[in-house]
Amino acid sequence: MIDFTFTEDQDMLKTAFREFIEAEIAPNAAKWDEQDLCPVELWPRMGEIGMLGIFIPEEYGGAGLGHIERIMVIEEIARYSAGLAIAVFTHHLAMGAILDGASEEQKKKYLPELCAGTKICGLAVTEPGGGSDFTGQKTTGVKDGDNWVINGRKCFITNGGPADITVVTAVTGQDDRGRNQLSCFLFEKGDEGFGPGRKEHKMGLRGSWTGDVIMDEVKVSADRLIGAEGAGAGLGMKQIGEIGRASMSAIGLGIMRGSLEESIKFANERILYGKPISKLQAIQFHIAEIRTWYEAARLLTYRAASLKDKGVSAITEFALAKYFSVDMAVKASQNAIELMGGYGVMTEYPVERFHRDALASISSGGTTEIQKLIIAGDTLRSFKA
Ligand SMILES: Cc1cc2nc3c(=O)[nH]c(=O)nc-3n(C[C@H](O)[C@H](O)[C@H](O)COP(=O)(O)OP(=O)(O)OC[C@H]3O[C@@H](n4cnc5c(N)ncnc54)[C@H](O)[C@@H]3O)c2cc1C
């Protein structure tokens, strides 16, 4: 049976999140974008209502729900602020690495505060040498007795500035074919030699901190290794491939829904030739296109999340969703701008921000070309020639 409806509990949850988001996030989204401010003071509030630990089991302080509910949170936030949505999902991303890779002791130590929002976290993988070349990383982790010494620089790291806890990948050896083996380490704010570097100034997704994270001879004990030594590539790729791409798809959904709702509002209020422009067929076509793209992306995104909740590997499904949803968010926000005429590019209306946010979403979670490579590889294997 294929069921495309949310359960009653999921609908109630969405309503509760919407109330919080409409009161706390919607009125401030333009200000955060203008000032490029990440509202870290909201973390304990979001923790309290369960947004941060939504997919984390109750024993570690979470709500014990699934990835459908997690996606819902990101879509609802991104409807008003895609910038804050990327900061929140990056918090999920690092929590996912801890949940999947950490020891019981590490989970009990770190996850409850991250669920409560009294601490913020991030995941630092990308380096200046190229994010797509995942195993070509240059950050090194070298054993020194019982400790590890880490050196390197990560770039474009969301939450890199405010994070109390950062999960970082480093090269800790080579396999017998000479390929880099990565391991994941956990750093805490205040670790000597570890900290944020320069902050980037982005065209979109502002309202989230993005920038460098520097490790200069950082010495950490063995209990900061997350997962087995050499298992970091798998652990990091899993989070990016599932939580990262699912969340970027949900950001695309939020932008499309925002573009649709703002278009409808404007089209009903703007009078031309003595009647609202929503009566013009060309305007209706813009609206019909956005609706179609939104609905199709929604099916791809929630289907992939439901597969993950069933424990099925959904790497290709998340790649399909991320590619389509972000691409369509670019088009949908452009449609909204065109529909509004000159008003569409005025900062008084949010659609120009939606368009900047959509464009800034293309590379995060892996570029469009990388998604197409995953999709093509799977298609060539799975479809009959
Ligand atoms: C707003 C934002 C937030 C981010 N947050 C984080 C974060 O929290 N943590 C983190 O670790 N990273 C983060 N990133 C980094 C992001 O994951 C990378 O930007 C992404 O992986 C691409 O890497 P790159 O920018 O170095 O581009 P590159 O890898 O240098 O790619 C350059 C171009 O080459 C193309 N290309 C690369 N390889 C291939 C190939 N095999 N075939 C065809 N074309 C190819 C790409 O598609 C792209 O067009 C963030 C990025 C942004 C923009």
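^ flavin-adenine dinucleotide complex. The first helix runs from residue 8 to 24. Residues 90, 122-126, 130-132, 156-158, 202, 205, 210, 360, 363-364, 366-367, 369-370, 373 surround flavin-adenine dinucleotide (CB under 6 Å).
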